[in-house]
Design brief:
single chain, mainly beta, six-stranded mixed beta sheet, 2 helices, globular
Amino acid sequence: MSLKEFHEVRFPLAVAFGAVGGPERRTEVVTLASGAEHRNAVWAGSRRRFDVGGAIQTLDELHDVLAFFEARRGPLHGFRFRDFTDDRSCSPDQSASALDQVLGVGDGVRTAFQLIKRYGDVVRLILKPVSGTVTVALDATTSATGWSVDVATGLLEFDTPPAPDVEITAGFEFDCPVRFASDRIEASVEGISSGRIAKVELIELLGNV
């Protein structure tokens, strides 16, 4: 069984809505005798972690998470997770627009452009756009046609290469590719209709998922 098999299914939204988590980075900090610091970024980018255990309140939610865990065989298979704090090409309180993110500039030859989201000068690859949410513009013309997007990879393909110097922009909603961080889940029933799982950690999958 492939360790890289990814299941194109989404973690239960009702539980995802109460998740706690966000991006983490790996930075080495060395403090010199003088008190000055040398800092080195071990990771080029960030990796997101989430804990959804605290969002589970009912027996139905507990059952849904356990069933989802079993179907993914624990950490073996990745899946989609909706991070409500960062799930679109714009800020969470806005609607995605075809002008949100600059993907590149045409050269008359290139037909493929990866969906990305920029945070200042930091670029995040968007690998799991939500089907039906992607819009594209060429030089701010939002009625651009002749393109398709692979929702399993986030790769935008044009039927005809955009002309030289034409700016390609896009807007979209997206999921975060994750896996369960542990082989074990500890659940308890705390009432007639309430259940609890102390911790259910998810970790973002980077690269080819």
